[in-house]
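Q: I have two molecules that I believe assemble together. Could you output structure tokens for the complex as a whole instead of separate predictions?
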Amino acid sequence: MSAPTLNDAPVVPTTRAKGLVAPKESYKVNWGATALMAVLSPAVLLPLYFAISMSLKSAQDAATGSGFSLPSTFEWSNFKTAWTLTHFPRAFGISLAVALVTVAGLLVFASMAAYAIARNWERKLFRYSYYYLLAAMFIPFPVIALPQIKLTALVHIDNPIGVTFLHILFGLSFNVLLYSAFLRSIPDELEESARLDGAGTWQVFRSLIFPLLAPMNATVGIFAFLASWNDFMMPNLITADPHLQTIPVVQSIFQSQFSTNYGVAFSSYLMAMLPTIVVYVISQRWVMQSMTRGAIK
Amino acid sequence: MSTTSRTTTQESGGSTSPSRAPARRRRNKVEPAYFIMLVPVVILFTLFITMPAVIGMFYSFTNYVGYGSWHFIGLTNYTSLFSDPNIRHAYGFTLLFSIVTVVAVNVIALALAIGLSGKIKFKTTLRGVFFVPMVISGIVIAYVFSYLFSTTVPAIATSLGIGGLETSILVNTHWAWVGIVVVATWQSVPGAMIIYLAGLLSIPGEVYEAASIDGASPWRQFRSITFPLVAGYVVINTILGVKAFLNVYDIIIGTTNGGPGTSTQSVAMTIFTGFTSGDYAYQMANAVIFFLVTVIISLLQLEIIRRRGVAI
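A: Yes, here they are, computed for all two components at once.
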């Protein structure tokens, strides 16, 4: 029983959050470990190097050698070709809309459901709803994919709207769990004083609870965004019209046309990867803190 | 666990202090707001997740092809599933892939987390680098690796004279799965690493200092301090990992597309063929079996945790 338990979690965050960012005070640097980590980092960086270098190569350049060499000439037109071929702006817009609405939907519905459950835990309806929602974690999408494809087609949401809708529903289990764990660490007294001042349940939730959930909102938001933005399986199977596909699916749709020209293919891969990488690099500390918080819960 | 403790403290708090009594009485009548917060979500969830699951299970006992008429055929779909070499191979491949990947991911993630939680220079940058795969789409990474396996690795192997790697591993019937494991591992390490890193950073440094003073070797420190403390996280990572890897799909689409032949076809891929190949009911039976396999594996893991007495 010596392992850290979920119940310890509320105590841990402060130390952990600090630990993520290199502490100010000086310490004896372990250069051996630093060197080892630096030597291992190409395992992550090399595929990215390939993506960048290949994306700038001309068709002949890309078709020869091991791909390690830098491009002999910079073929910027690859990006233009990939951009028009994949209808990048449209795919990007659809991906972004799906991911953002999924995030918004999960932030609102998962937190509300978790709040209602946490405050009425002694009632069977709420308690069983919690277990019911949680049980769906055992139902992966492939298990219900076939009936779901038929169902979405039947109610005419075999499009990005349906994908968004399903992203939210499939995300509920995990995020209600995250929120419930966090809500338990918010003392009842806070709420009761607000209620004594005459605030109703909605008002308490909107102006007290939801803001208090901010750290967890960040965690839920980041995970939901990444899962939705990078998902391939669901849009690929649910969305019927190839013109309405998200960025990851578009890559596979144009695969046959890419195969003749690696330069164009890698330009497209790079454009698909870049948005999340750029956002991640800019907000790295915040993202890592938020993700670690979720990891413990 | 903590949920039950919360309820008990609430109730005992209510009964001991008389001032809380009105609050408790008010709780007896649930405010409509709470219903509005929860019920619509549960209803939509039932309509779009539970209902398809039930409908699918129902059709698995029929000869439905996806349209038109159908009739009950009992357990025929299930019995033919068990004698279908394609399906059996898909389960074998998916299980092998999941087990190997989950072991590879956990070993690498734990090792990296230990390195990154140590007293290293450029800590934030190095951690940042190792997290990058987490933000990239699986299918895109699979395409990039597909190129590396089919062009770069053979080119290097040829120039170095390494036999066996001179052709793409992805077109080798016996070893293509290893290529898929490599891509899946590359992509999944950061997720597991976050959990380990969080766990390791919650261990106070004094524990290690005391151990060093007592003359414990680094390996001894890992075995007696680090590992027992992160054991709970190993369990979490294994459960989450196996669950995710059993559903492997996009990485295979991007590398081998199930080939060569059907040697790397995962269970998810076989189920999806039911949509186009006219054996809807048959593949629904497959989905039901897949669901049971997922649940049994998850329950087995939970049982092992319970026996070991690891608290999560």
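A: One point stands out. DSSP finds 13 helices and no strands in chain B.
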